[in-house]
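Hey, I'm writing a tutorial for new members on how sequence and structure tokens pair up, and I'd like a real worked example in the thread rather than a made-up one. If someone can provide the structure for the chain below, I'll link this post from the tutorial.
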Amino acid sequence: MAAKASNGQCTACEAKGPTFLYHGKNLKKIELCVECYDAYLAKEMTQYWKDHIQEEKRRTGKAS
């Protein structure tokens, strides 16, 4: 996803300054500062891989 930077207020920490638009829950756009954007993206990627690993375990029958 290519994010577009703008000046606004972060939805998460309410800091004013450069922000990025990101799709939140229900595909609503949320505005996040650089630090919150990075944390949100890392959280999403971590959850993606956890889900992927669980699906692979179910698919191959290797439960731990």
